[in-house]
Amino acid sequence: MSMVTGRKSRWRVPVLILNLFLALLLASGCSWTGQQAPANQSPDPSPPQPLYVAVYYVKSNDQESYLVREIHKIPQTDKPALKAVEELISGEPSTPGAMRILPAGTRVLDVSVKDGLATVNFSREVLEQPGTGAEGEALAIQSVVNTLTEFPEIRQVSFQVEGKVDERTLDWWGHVGLYDQPFRRDLSRVYEPAIWVTHPTPDQVIGVPLLVKGSARVYEGTVNARLLDSQGRVLASAYTTATRAAPERGDFEMRLSFKPPQDGKGTLEVYSINARDGSIENKVTIPVSWP
Questions:
Q1: What is the DSSP letter of 102?
Q2: In Å, what is the CA distance from 207 to each residue of 27, 43, 228, 235, 238?
Q3: In what order do the strands lie in the sheet with 195-199?
Q4: CB contact set of 76 (below 8 Å; sequence gap of 6+)
Q5: Minimal CA–CA distance to 54: which of 100, 88, 99, 82?
Q6: Residue 258: what are its φ and ψ, rounded to 5°?
Q7: Are 70 and 57 in contact (CB under 8 A)?
Q8: In whole angstroms, what is the distance from residue 218 CA to residue 280 CA?
Q9: Residues 57/89, Cβ–Cβ less than 8 Å
Q10: What is the SS3 assignment for 192?
């Protein structure tokens, strides 16, 4: 009997020590690896998604100069309008022959928005004349205005230099000047691309019917759209007429009704038809998905 009692006594102390250790381990929030567990631990947050902005550069041919619209990817920011103008100044155009026109040393000091009016405050370097004539100056001004009015909350744009609008600022590059500001959006000199789509955006989760919106500068204003599944099969197609036909630019809008397949991914194609041979041209391809 005493031998059994002795054994129980010998085991009781280690068990008590082990229980005490476990209690301290749980109270301290330690893991079994000995690493401290953060309070209210949650899964790692998703990385910030990039921001896509539309910017307008200048391009020239033998007859004239005009604007081209490009979509650029920039890091996520809480000042997208300011960053869009910075991209216009320092970004690299992707359209062959397109070029930046604002002086390279220009800094964007601020972009403030109130009641639909965006006021851009440039550094004094913006007044360094880049050697353009009246046409180039007008297009440069409109490139900034069109870039900013891509944001739905902005309807008009005015310029400042170092926080003021003095006579030198109003004169701008010496041809057109800022005397008629604030400026409004004007796409009449935007020739490229012939078609762009503003809805849906790439990788957007779409609904039924699918709303398709954008801008076109095409023959007779006729714009076609079709939705393909992941295997390239046509789920729906439609066409519409833009508000203006080439050589002018107009807006378009249409809806595509379809039955969503189970795979959940597809492609929207928006394009025009060549009047001479019936081939597809000016095609815009947008990846989309559905629940």
A1: S
A2: 50, 30, 14, 13, 16
A3: 195-199, 210-216, 250-256
A4: 48, 49, 50, 51
A5: 88
A6: -155, 160
A7: yes
A8: 12
A9: no
A10: strand
Count of residues making up the chain? 291
Q: What are phi and psi of 171, to 5 degrees?
A: -70, -25
User: Cis bond leading into 291, ω under 30°?
Assistant: no
- CA distance to 21, 37, 131, per residue, from 32 (Å): 12, 10, 70
SS (H, E, C) 199-254: ECCCCEECCCCEEEEEEECCHHHEEEEEEEECCCCEEEEEEEECCCCCCCCEEEEE
pLDDT per residue, tens digit, the chain (291 aa), is: 444 444 444 445 444 444 544 444 444 443 333 333 344 555 556 667 788 999 999 999 989 999 999 999 999 999 999 999 999 999 999 999 999 999 989 999 999 999 999 999 999 999 997 778 899 999 999 999 999 999 999 999 999 999 999 999 999 999 999 999 999 999 999 999 999 999 999 999 999 999 999 999 999 999 999 999 999 999 999 999 999 999 999 999 999 999 999 889 999 999 999 999 999 999 999 999 998
